[in-house]
Amino acid sequence: MKIFIIGAVRDATANWNDMLLDYVAQLEEKGHEVHLPMRDTDQKASGRAICRQNVNAIAAADEIHLFYDPKSQGTHFDMGAAFALGKKLKVIKNIEYGEGKSYARMADEWADSQ
Predict the structure, then answer these.
(1) Considering its fold, how many domains does the chain have in total?
(2) What are the pLDDT digits (tens) for 26-56?
(3) pTM over 0.90
(4) Domain of residue 12, residue span
(5) Chain-centroid distance, C-alpha 109
(6) Rounded distance, CA 53 to CA 45, Å?
(7) For residues 50 and 73, is the Cβ–Cβ distance under 8 A?
(8) Which residues, 6+ apart, have CB-to-CB distance to 81 below 8 Å?
(9) The pLDDT of residue 36
(10) Is there a contact between 6 and 104 (Cβ–Cβ < 8 Å)?
């Protein structure tokens, strides 16, 4: 299965990056092909080029795995692309949220609706 990981890249902590890399290693050990933007997208490219690379990888993915960080603008962009493309979403890490609308709640609703 091809899996695209959505998670913060810019301003991500070393602990965050280690968590993502550990998760990806587990998936790859099981034979999955994983696109992890911090590793597989050219982060030196222009913002538009980074977005295009990610959209192409999202389009090619069978499933999207989300590590939600509300401060990450790239996470919101990638979520929108995956949603527009009708991709299956699996929420791996989310934040606590209360009443009302939020991206965090929407991600859980999206994952639960499949």
Answers:
(1) 1
(2) 999 999 999 999 999 999 999 999 999 999 9
(3) yes
(4) 2-112
(5) 16
(6) 10
(7) no
(8) 51, 54, 55, 58
(9) 98
(10) no
What is the rounded average pLDDT for all residues in the chain? Answer: 97
CA distance 83 to 89: 9
Best CA proximity match to 27, nearest among 7, 55, 2, 60:
2
User: What does the pLDDT look like over 69-87, one tens digit per residue?
Assistant: 999 999 999 999 999 999 9
The rounded distance, in Å, linking the Cα atoms of 51 and 57 is 10
Distance CA 19, CA 92 (A): 11
Q: Which residues pair with 65 in a beta bridge?
A: 5, 90
CATH code of the domain covering residue 46: 3.40.50.450
**Helical H runs in 10-102?**
14-29, 37-40, 47-60, 73-84
73-84 vs 103-112: helix axis angle to the nearest 10?
30
Q: What is the mean pLDDT of residues 14-37?
A: 98
d(CA 55, CA 27): 21
